[in-house]
Amino acid sequence: MGRWDLSRFPVPRMGETARDMFEEKCVLMRFPCGHLFKLATLSNKRAAKDSEEALATVVLSAIAVEAFINDFAFAVAGLSTKESPSSLSELVDAHRSRGWKRRSLDTKILTMFKLLTKRDLPKNDQLRKAFALLVELRNMLVHMKTEKIVYPAPSAHPLYDRLTAQGLTLETFPRDRSCPSVLLAHCQVAEWSLRTAMATARLLLEAMPECTTANAVVRLFAPLFYSEADGLGQARHRGV
């Protein structure tokens, strides 16, 4: 994927002036995902002093991406025109389909990526693996099943090795390796979670076919996902 030069494209009016589109507060007010990414960012900062904040960052990062998917489809639907590529209409149709809500979060990402690019995201893609792990960590914290709880645990949690492979586990007592809160309660996990969520959102933005509609959508979200060092006129190649 190439680099976006967003400065060449005008921003369509959606109730505010074009200048307002570049204001972060405007993006935060327009899209729920903006609030959630902001909360995840604040939680990540606090995790440096309070390790338990890392658990909140994991959950907030995952749900911020889920909110972004909905906001992203809403923006595409609101800005799409007859001149837009068919892939954008297909994305909106998929989001509106009856079975969409029942799909898992990582499946939604993969489906949207394929609709936009007409190709699959490789299974060995590092961001794909990282985001799948983030979703599993979030589910591990939020959807713990009572029938799976055995104490004392006979072995480490099934995700322990995958966390270790990402460099995200600290030395713990053997009996603690089965406990999700102990495994995830440190600032490295918080930072990794937020970076993975941000990179996943950028993945979809940068996957769109280059057209006026797509560039307008990217500009709407640019203040959330690109730093001043990138400039609003350039979007970086993704990476975790």
Give a written overview of the molecule.
The protein has 240 residues and is mainly α. It has one domain. Helices cover 57% and strands 2% of the residues. The protein contains 10 helices and 2 strands. Strands 1-2 form a two-stranded antiparallel ribbon. Helix 3 (53-79) crosses helix 6. 34% of the residues are buried.
List keywords for this structure.
240 residues; mainly alpha; 10 helices; globular; disordered C terminus
Order of helices and strands: EHHHHHHHHHHE
- Give the overall silhouette: globular
Q: Note the gap between the termini.
A: 16 Å
Class by alpha and beta content:
mainly alpha
The helix count comes to 10
Mean pLDDT: 75
Q: Gyration radius, to the nearest Å?
A: 19 Å
Q: Helices and strands in order, then pairings?
A:
Blueprint (H helix, E strand, L loop, with lengths): L3 E2 L18 H7 L1 H15 L6 H27 L6 H11 L8 H13 L8 H17 L17 H6 L14 H5 L2 H21 L4 H14 L8 E2 L5
Antiparallel strand pairs: 1-2
Helix pairs in contact: 1-2, 2-3, 2-9, 3-4, 3-6, 3-9, 3-10, 4-5, 5-9, 6-9, 9-10
Describe the structure concisely:
The chain is an all-alpha fold and 240 residues long. The chain has 10 helices and 2 strands; from the N terminus they run βααααααααααβ.
